[in-house]
């Protein structure tokens, strides 16, 4: 099974809570209460998101955390990269690797194609969309095989 790490999942939950009220700063304690994520975990996530420039912190009575950019300008791919690093299903599809068969690998090009499709899909969803009520989101339309952006080329 392919899945994101738990901290990345929590980061998206926390970022979505911030996106729901982008004009308000929220404390780690308040974010933990809103998201039901443990406060130490929220703190760890916010620290990593702050290092990546996705959130900013301010001190004082009205301080707290807020998004560094408009929620419509932050994609899920931005959050995943901040938490996990480059997006790719295999090591060589995200960046150079020390795989012994990389120079002669017959499927490397296809893994890169698949990884790019995933990056594009994650990049197409914003925090603004994630924060919108689920009832206002249109139901996903299943893609037809003829519409699929994936084209496999064995020689790639």
From TrEMBL:
Family matches, as InterPro entries: SUF_FeS_clus_asmbl_reg, TR_Rrf2-type_CS, Tscrpt_reg_Rrf2, WH-like_DNA-bd_sf, WH_DNA-bd_sf
Record-linked Gene3D superfamilies: Winged helix-like DNA-binding domain superfamily/Winged helix DNA-binding domain (1.10.10.10)
PROSITE patterns named among the record's database cross-references: HTH_RRF2_1, HTH_RRF2_2
One Pfam family per UniProt: Rrf2
PANTHER family (UniProt xref): TRANSCRIPTIONAL REGULATOR, WINGED HELIX-TURN-HELIX TRANSCRIPTIONAL REGULATOR, RRF2 FAMILY
Name used for this protein in its record: SUF system Fe-S cluster assembly regulator
Organism whose genome encodes this protein: Banduia mediterranea
Native organism taxonomy: Bacteria, Pseudomonadati, Pseudomonadota, Gammaproteobacteria, Nevskiales
